[in-house]
Amino acid sequence: MNQELQQKIIQEFDLVNLESKSQDDAVNRIGQLLIDRLVLESLSALDDVTQDKFNEILDNKPDPDKVISFLQKNVPNFYDLWDEIFSAIKTDFINLKG
């Protein structure tokens, strides 16, 4: 996951004051959740041929940046979907913190 996304997660989820190890763990979990939800939501937007290509990429255990790059190129309105999922995860996080 790139530095820009890591920093956004730290700021948006108010993880600034966590110790380094806890912060890294939280960022990785939130980042993985974001990517997992992006994958699930994006599959319906891909045609069969593109889904097959994507499945080939996923079968090779790619790094998150490669997954995001593929989705950016192949999912219409990717950034709207990204913002929607990011906001939903943030809302869930806030509700859990109470």
Task: Produce the secondary structure layout.
Layout: H1 3-12, H2 20-43, H3 48-59, H4 64-74, H5 78-97
What does this entry look like structurally?
The protein is mostly helical and 98 residues long. It is 79% helix and 0% strand. The chain is built from 5 helices and no strands. The radius of gyration is 14 Å and the shape is globular. The protein starts with a helix and ends with a helix. The mean pLDDT is 93.
Which terms summarize this structure?
single chain; mainly alpha; 98 residues
How many strands?
0
What is the tally of helical segments?
Answer: 5
- Overall structural class, as computed from helix and strand content, comes to mainly alpha
Measure the end-to-end span.
28 Å
Portion of residues within helices: over 70%
Approximate shape? globular
Could you tell me the strand content as a percent range?
under 5%
Give me the Rg, rounded. 14 Å
Mean pLDDT: 93
- Helix and strand element order: HHHHH
Largest sheet: none
Low-pLDDT stretches are none
What's this, in brief?
By secondary structure, the chain is mainly α. It has helices at residues 3-12, 20-43, 48-59, 64-74, 78-97. It is built from 5 helices and no strands.
